[in-house]
């Protein structure tokens, strides 16, 4: 079996496919830090300080939904060890605060009511628990907390772990029993993807929203080593880490050149995560520092449109509401997405291609695809009249792996074609900015593919 044949045998699980189809979802960072103006708590905070008097989980969910997001992940316990649910194994919980209600329950119910998937973040680092650093005793404690979250709040689409591993209240560090944690999740929530420090979805390598030019889903098995990920994760609170970009040495994770000597390969898609503000938790001083719409849309196009998913954090205020500036920005994001991808003119085009079946790309479905006979192919779309174009969307049928290595996009001009875009991978979705070009024809040329490409969808979006 040659390399290309071996590569295309690596395909996603059903849970990974469903996760990628969410595309864009929210992080909600909320804990005692919200009341201390810190990013990281030290575990000594009193529950008495936690009093979000106007908390409204439905407000969170409605705002998230307005942005076009399809899921929400709540920080049920951050490094400070403070639990946002009625945890039986510690007194350091919301139930012993002035608020006194189960916020995990309120959030899960709001998500269900408004058709948003619900996920949980549970930090394995616990700066409050005296068992931390005592091996199995702490693992038992952590698994008990995990079990509560996975059995008491309905379906969970994501369990999100980072690799932070500092000292606990006794000055010791804990060796995390990742495989035990994973087995509990698989048993209790088999459809949940385990993200970042987990086997299903990988961290893109930074918290700044920076993306790779080519994001591969087929990567070496060693890419999911939890201990390596932990070493690269944030181990102390500092802004420099939050703004760090992808290391140049990690830019190419899955080309033929990088995989030729790899014996074990896996399907391990990337998630791009960042915050709508400089910090992950709310700080009053950052109310006027919400990221510009243009910056967030650039991240969206390069992540969702670059074979990754996009996890955007929005932190509630100390009142328990998303700030009006954040809510307004979320509404603007949703409006942008709806408008940019509202008017697909591809179904009205005359289409020519190298073989039959090209009409299958007009419906976004894995049931019927366009599969030319050779690794290289051309598809030309002819319009009835010149059109001003905003974006091109191309998708592969990832049920048959990720195949395309490079492609170009050209538009008709002065009797010929002018190349306007040179791309690398496609994968689940590639969004190509067409920058308001006016033309009457568009050509997609697959210039390199591991084996015959399998294109499941092409959308050409008119600029309003």
Sheet with the most strands, sense and barrel status: 8 strands, parallel
Helical segment tally? 12
Q: Using only CA atoms, what is the Rg?
A: 23 Å
Shape: globular
Sheet with most strands: strand arrangement: 5-4-3-2-1-10-9-6
Would you count the extended β strands for me?
17
End-to-end distance: 49 Å
SS content category? alpha/beta
Question: How would you sum up this structure, described in words?
Answer:
The strands form 3 sheets. The chain has an 8-stranded parallel β-sheet, sandwiched between helices. Strand 2, helix 5 and strand 3 form a beta-alpha-beta unit. The protein contains 12 helices and 17 strands. Helix 4 runs parallel beside helix 12 and helix 6 runs parallel beside helix 7. The protein has 464 residues and is α/β, with parallel strands linked by helices.
């Amino acid at each position: 079996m040659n390399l290309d044949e071996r590569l295309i045998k690596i395909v996603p699980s059903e849970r990974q496919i469903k996760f990628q189809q969410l595309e864009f979802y929210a992080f909600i960072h909320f804990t005692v830090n919200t009341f201390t103006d810190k990013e990281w708590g030290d575990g000594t905070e009193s529950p008495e300080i936690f009093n979000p008097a106007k908390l409204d989980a439905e407000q969170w969910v409605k705002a998230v939904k307005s942005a076009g997001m399809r899921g929400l992940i709540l920080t049920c316990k951050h490094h400070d060890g403070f639990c946002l649910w009625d945890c039986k194994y510690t007194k350091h919980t919301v139930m012993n605060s002035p608020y006194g209600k189960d916020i995990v329950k309120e959030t899960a119910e709001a998500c269900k009511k408004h058709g948003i998937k619900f996920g949980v973040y549970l930090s394995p680092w616990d700066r409050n628990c005296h068992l931390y650093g005592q091996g199995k005793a702490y693992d038992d404690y952590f698994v008990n907390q995990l079990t509560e979250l996975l059995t008491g709040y309905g379906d969970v689409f994501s369990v999100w772990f980072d690799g932070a591993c500092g000292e606990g209240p006794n000055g010791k560090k804990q060796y995390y029993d990742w495989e035990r944690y994973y087995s509990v999740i698989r048993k209790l929530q088999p459809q949940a993807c385990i993200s970042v420090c987990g086997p299903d979805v990988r961290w893109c390598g930074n918290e700044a929203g920076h993306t790779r030019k080519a994001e591969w889903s087929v990567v070496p098995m060693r890419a999911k080593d939890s201990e390596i990920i932990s070493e690269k994760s944030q181990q102390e609170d500092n802004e420099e880490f939050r703004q760090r970009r992808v290391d140049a040495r990690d830019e190419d994770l899955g080309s033929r050149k990088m995989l030729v000597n790899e014996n074990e390969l896996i399907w391990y898609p990337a998630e791009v995560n960042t915050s709508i503000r400089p910090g992950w938790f709310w700080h009053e001083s950052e109310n006027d520092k919400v990221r510009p719409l243009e910056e967030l849309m650039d991240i969206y196009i390069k992540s969702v449109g670059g074979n990754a998913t996009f996890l955007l954090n929005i932190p509630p205020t100390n009142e328990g509401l998303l700030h009006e500036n954040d809510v307004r920005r979320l509404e603007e994001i949703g409006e942008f997405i709806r408008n940019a991808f509202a008017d697909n003119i591809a179904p009205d085009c005359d289409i020519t291609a190298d073989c039959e079946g090209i009409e299958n790309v007009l419906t976004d479905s894995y049931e019927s695809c366009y599969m030319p006979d050779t690794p290289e192919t051309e598809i030309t779309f002819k319009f009835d009249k010149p059109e001003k174009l905003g974006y091109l969307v191309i998708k592969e049928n990832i049920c048959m792996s990720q195949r395309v290595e490079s492609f170009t996009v050209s538009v008709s001009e002065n009797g010929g074609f002018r190349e306007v875009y040179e791309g690398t991978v496609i994968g689940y979705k590639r969004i190509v900015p067409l920058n308001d070009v006016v033309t009457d024809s568009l050509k997609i040329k697959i210039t390199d593919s591991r084996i015959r490409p399998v294109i499941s969808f092409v959308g050409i979006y008119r600029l309003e």
